[in-house]
Amino acid sequence: MRVGIVYIGMSNTASVCRALEDAGASPFVMHEPCELSQAQKIILPGVGSFNQAMNSLKKMGWVDALQEHVLGQKKPLLGICLGMQLLLQQGCEGGDSAGLGYIEGAVQHLQNLGCQARLPHMGWNSVAYAQPHHLFAGVASESDWYFVHSYAVQTAHTESIIGQTEHDIVFTSVIAKDNVMGVQFHPEKSGKQGRKLLENFVVL
């Protein structure tokens, strides 16, 4: 299975590639939108600010190309960490910015959502499933995953909420709508359960 990893200069693609290889995929890093035609499935990772990432996606021509392949051709897409947040309609990190808009909602700083715990939220934490999803086949609810973030998604579209995590407040940590999926944690850094999640994505 050819899995293309979107690269806009704001992510560590090497660890994602290794994890996908362990999961049985044939990953490759995509530096240009035209390479999407070679991908059967797509990973959108990311670190840094929402605004900067969206500006890079626009400047490099990814926005229209991703829409064609994800919404038009229905290729499965998995967003990781910032990549998950970019799937929403709006973000405020680094200044207000429109997101890709695949899933209804916006991204807010955890403090603005009422979180009084130390930020960034970094380290291992559990995910409770809000509803069944094939990403988590064979992985028990409340399993621990590795997080590094200070922002979280909010969506009123409850059907898109797959998993939730508590860090002083309860926030949405897994979203999905049709062929679009996102996880706030890093599966590539989450041990056996992370590999299983990526295996599940690969065999969709």
Task: Tell me, briefly, the overall form.
Answer: globular
* Arrangement of strands in the largest sheet: 2-1-3-4-14-13-12-9
Q: Under CATH, the topology is which?
A: Rossmann fold
Order of helices and strands: EHEEHHEHEEEEEEEEEEH
Beta-strand content estimate: 25-35%
When the domains are counted, the total is 1
- Alpha plus pi helix count: 5
CATH architecture: 3-Layer(aba) Sandwich
Helix coverage percent of residues? 10-25%
Short description:
With 204 residues, the protein is an alpha/beta fold. The protein has 5 helices and 14 strands. The protein has one domain: Class I glutamine amidotransferase (GATase) domain (Rossmann fold, 3-Layer(aba) Sandwich).
Secondary structure layout plus pairing:
Layout (H helix, E strand, L loop, with lengths): L1 E5 L6 H10 L3 E5 L10 E4 L5 H10 L2 H11 L4 E4 L1 H4 L4 E2 L5 E2 L7 E4 L11 E6 L1 E2 L14 E6 L1 E4 L6 E7 L1 E9 L2 E4 L7 H12 L2
Parallel strand pairs: 1-2, 1-3, 3-4, 4-14, 5-7
Antiparallel strand pairs: 5-6, 7-11, 8-10, 9-12, 12-13, 13-14
Describe the protein in words:
The structure is a single chain. With 204 residues, the protein is α/β, with parallel strands linked by helices. It has a single domain, classed as Rossmann fold. 23% of the residues lie in helices and 31% in strands. It is built from 5 helices and 14 strands. It has helices at 13-22, 50-59, 62-72, 82-85, 191-202; strands spanning 2-6, 26-30, 41-44, 77-80, 90-91, 97-98, 106-109, 121-126, 128-129, 144-149, 151-154, 161-167, 169-177, 180-183. The longest helix has 12 residues, at 191-202. 42% of the residues are buried. The mean pLDDT is 96.
